[in-house]
Amino acid sequence: MNFDLTQEHQMLKNMMRDFANEKVAPGAIERDKTKQFPTDIFKELSDMGMMGLPFDEEYGGAGADTISFAIVTEELSRACASTGITYSAHISLGGAPLSLFGTEEQKKKYLTPICTGESFGAFGLTEPNAGSDAGGTQTTAKLEGDEWVINGSKVYITNASHAKHLAITAITGTENGKKEISAIIVPTDAEGFTIIDNYEKMGLNASNTTELVFENVRVPKENLLGVQGNGFKQFLTTLDGGRIGIGAMAVGIAQAAFDKALRYSKERKQFGKSLSEFQITQFKLADMALKIELARTMVYKAAWLKDQGRAFGKEAAMCKLYASEIAMEVADEAIQIHGGYGYMKEYEVERFMRDAKLLEIGEGTSEVQRMVIARHVGC
């Protein structure tokens, strides 16, 4: 077993760390206040060839692996989790379904703009009455002649305001009394398609989170993504990959919180010595470092399994569950180490906790991850 990053992975990590420190981190506090979407940052990421990182070069991608995606997501999230989730969703939810299930024509038409940065990637799954129970989908798509007619709504959709198209799930019929769910590609400028961006969120304020409303939206029959009726299986596969991104995000946030806490503990004096000289602080920092190391290793293992073409669903759920929960724990401890200063926005650690909370909810709650893991281990 070799736990070293390859030379290429290490170069990518160094490059993204420098970029995150110089370009992403300086505006993070202000973006959290103003909710300004980081357009300029993503223009630079596009120029760097990061927007299509794991996708085939023939569609404008870089042909990199999942470990590379995890590295970039972690480094961006360490500096600004809003930037990290925007990137992770762009790749794992927006581009991945097109890459996995799209026809050659669909990939050229819809995946290429995602890879080049002309469009952000987005995926419409969650509905007002279909969160953890995605099988409760109520949005419908009825075939009329050569067109799908779509009606319904989606909620909590990342990046849709900046996407030119996105894949959504909809009921396309029934089979043996059960809903037949399919995935369909919908241009965001289609008549009857409304995108609403007015959520007031706890954290991740500079990311774009929207509601989608479909009122007799018509798209060509050939916009069906994958096999009709296989939408449920397709989005489960998509979420497996997305959970690696969430795990990487969580590691990045936890690392940022640890770094701030370690630095502060060395600078802050109490009773004539620095906080870092007290054993209780040392034990807190040791536990934080331990959990981050374990979480990162789990993320890399899930990514490696995916890159090897092996089953990775269990490991993706494990890394997402563990990393998201320790991100909250580490952020909490970082605030505690900062004391009263930790409660103040300028010290940033309170933002890390607000941002981390979504990771225990999105792309399958912690409870759902435990259900997934239980099934994998034979329960």
From TrEMBL:
Entry GO MF terms: acyl-CoA dehydrogenase activity; flavin adenine dinucleotide binding
Entry similarity comment: Belongs to the acyl-CoA dehydrogenase family.
Domain Acyl-CoA dehydrogenase/oxidase C-terminal per the UniProt entry, residue ranges: 229-377
UniProt lineage: Bacteria, Bacillati, Bacillota, Bacilli, Bacillales
Residue ranges of every copy of the Acyl-CoA dehydrogenase/oxidase N-terminal domain listed in the record: 6-118
Cofactor requirements of the protein: FAD
Reaction(s) catalysed (UniProt annotation): a 2,3-saturated acyl-CoA + A = a 2,3-dehydroacyl-CoA + AH2
Domain spans labelled Acyl-CoA oxidase/dehydrogenase middle: 122-217
Entries under InterPro entries matching the protein: Acyl-CoA_DH_CS, Acyl-CoA_Oxase/DH_mid-dom, Acyl-CoA_Oxase/DH_mid-dom_sf, AcylCo_DH-like_C, AcylCo_DH/oxidase_C, AcylCoA_DH/ox_N, AcylCoA_DH/ox_N_sf, AcylCoA_DH/oxidase_NM_dom_sf
Matching PANTHER family: ACYL-COA DEHYDROGENASE (PTHR43884), ISOVALERYL-COA DEHYDROGENASE, MITOCHONDRIAL-RELATED (PTHR43884:SF12)
Descriptive protein name: Acyl-CoA dehydrogenase
A Pfam family that the UniProt record links to this protein: Acyl-CoA_dh_N
Keywords: FAD, Flavoprotein, Oxidoreductase
